[in-house]
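Appendix C: a fully annotated inverse folding record. The material below is reproduced so that readers can follow the format used throughout the book. The structure is listed first as tokens, followed by the designed sequence.
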């Protein structure tokens, strides 16, 4: 399989570069900037990308690649810091931008040389996204200038003979108008990629290698009902059938019908499926607890305990499967030993479960690739495109103490909101939306009588990374329908709020 190597110089968009490359159906991996040449050779890339980074390339201690990378004979694309690095290491000069000249931040009109293969098919002028304080003051020998902006004369450099290209802007960021085309050119025109990275192929290869590795061993998996563990279960079921033992801990904090939906999704598949109904246990542990962090700890801890007890009944297994995905691997410091993503944000593995090895077949996939794989495996779309749902479930959407009554109210209200969002065609537009049960009761009038009931809060946000989020401008008519239905259909609710705070200052969840 053809591979692109992304050397990480510490830039904030490195994951995004990798995702963009894979969107073009070319496999890539992000590795530390100082990956030794021998390892690079073993990796055998068809091209290398140097990422951006916060350093100044001319200062002592600036991160540099193994110089052997320049003699590999494969194309290199340097982005931002990576571009300056290319220039300096090959004989050019990089300096701090004087005053404000050549220093750029944000959207910048850029003029391209259309004869440069990197910019083929792009208009001569378009907007790019810049973020740099240094610039290339002298272009190295063998290179020529291929783009400029009003402030910076050296926005892109290229050496077509050696196939080295550098751009000062960020093609991976959406604000760069022709970033996709540029990456396409690099991958297909310059690196001559064929585009052999598809999920159908990944599925076939991974199933074959799982069969080989697992042999006739048994595999244990904690299924949470989330996208990653569900896709993992489907993949392993196809690879090793009933050698896969899935433990689905139903903590009673899922949304309406969700537990049954998870079970139904796996009912026709070959695997050894154990559903543990632990709702009562979780509820009694949560009794009287109001502190959000304490709720999280309880749900996480109890989850591990229930899983361990079930695993004990199952007996020794050979492998424990984990739904670790690539962002976890990248964020935790790249290619280090197994990164353990535990369910419900509890650090660590269940320690009384006996197994030989950990299996993490999704560890090189991004979330959208995991979803694509789920489709290849025939999982229902409702499960695959499920919006993010916190591990502690509805326990952190019932503000204050969690009780069976409050959970029942919330489940119904949330189901109505979801139904109406779907039928209004808004479900795909929102990044995350849900109902929460506020810890507030207020007076209302129902028929001729006075009511004193709970208030439900509705929340819907738009975001790309959940670090910041904007509240969704939902149509009033939709909000009205949801409100009328909730108050009419859910006993114990007489008021509905719509949350119009963004993050920050609010968070997405209420607890
Ligand atoms: P906040 O509330 O921090 O949420 O703005 C950002 C995203 O993270 C999810 N979230 C959680 N996910 N366990 C999880 O697995 C948690 O304890 C948790 N708290 C928040 C939240 O749903 C949103 O997508």
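Designed amino acids, in order:
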């Amino acid at each position: 399989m053809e591979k692109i190597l992304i050397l990480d110089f510490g830039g904030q968009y490195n994951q995004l570069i990798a995702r963009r490359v894979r969107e073009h159906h070319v496999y890539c991996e992000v590795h530390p900037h100082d990956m030794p040449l021998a390892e690079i050779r073993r990796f055998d890339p068809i091209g290398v990308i140097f990422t951006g980074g916060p350093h100044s390339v001319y200062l002592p201690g600036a991160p540099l690649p193994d110089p052997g990378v320049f003699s590999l004979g494969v194309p290199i694309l340097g982005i931002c810091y990576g571009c300056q690095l290319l220039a300096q290491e090959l004989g050019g000069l990089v300096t701090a931008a004087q005053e404000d000249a050549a220093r750029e931040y944000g959207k910048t009109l850029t003029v391209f040389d259309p004869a440069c293969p990197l910019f083929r098919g792009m208009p001569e002028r378009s907007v790019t996204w810049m973020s740099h304080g240094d610039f290339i003051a002298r272009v190295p020998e063998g290179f020529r200038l291929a783009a400029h902006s009003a402030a910076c004369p050296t926005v892109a450099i290229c050496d077509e003979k050696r196939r080295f290209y550098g751009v000062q802007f960020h093609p991976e960021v959406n604000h760069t108008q022709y970033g996709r085309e540029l990456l396409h050119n690099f991958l297909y025109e310059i690196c001559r990629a064929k585009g052999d990275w598809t999920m159908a192929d990944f599925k076939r290869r991974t199933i074959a290698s799982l069969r080989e590795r697992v042999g006739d061993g048994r595999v244990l998996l904690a299924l949470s009902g989330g996208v990653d563990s569900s896709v993992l279960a489907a993949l392993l079921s196809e690879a090793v059938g009933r050698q896969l033992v899935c433990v689905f801990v139903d903590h009673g904090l899922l949304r309406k019908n969700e537990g049954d939906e998870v079970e139904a999704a796996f009912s026709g598949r070959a695997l050894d499926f154990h559903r543990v109904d632990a709702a009562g246990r979780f509820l009694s542990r949560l009794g009287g607890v109001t502190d959000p962090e304490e709720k999280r700890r309880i749900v996480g801890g109890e989850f591990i305990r229930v899983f361990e007890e079930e695993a004990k009944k199952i007996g020794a297994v050979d492998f424990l499967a984990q739904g670790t995905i690539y962002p976890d691997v990248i964020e935790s410091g790249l290619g280090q030993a197994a990164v353990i993503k535990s369910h419900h944000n509890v650090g660590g593995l269940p320690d009384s479960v006996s197994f030989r090895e950990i299996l993490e077949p999704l560890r090189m996939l991004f979330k959208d690739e995991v979803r694509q794989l789920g489709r290849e495996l025939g999982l229902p779309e409702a499960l695959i495109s499920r919006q993010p749902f916190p591990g502690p479930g509805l326990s952190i959407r019932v503000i204050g103490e969690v009780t069976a009554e409050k959970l029942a109210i919330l489940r119904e209200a949330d189901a109505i909101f979801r139904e109406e969002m779907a039928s209004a065609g808004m479900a795909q537009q929102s990044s995350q939306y849900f109902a929460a049960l506020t810890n507030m009761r207020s007076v209302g009038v129902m028929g001729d009588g006075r009511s004193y009931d709970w208030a439900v809060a509705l929340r819907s946000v738009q975001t790309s990374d959940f670090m910041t989020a904007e509240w969704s401008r939902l149509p009033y008519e939709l909000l009205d329908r949801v409100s009328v239905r909730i108050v009419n259909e859910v006993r114990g609710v007489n008021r509905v709020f719509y949350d119009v705070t963004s993050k920050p200052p609010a968070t997405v969840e209420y607890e």
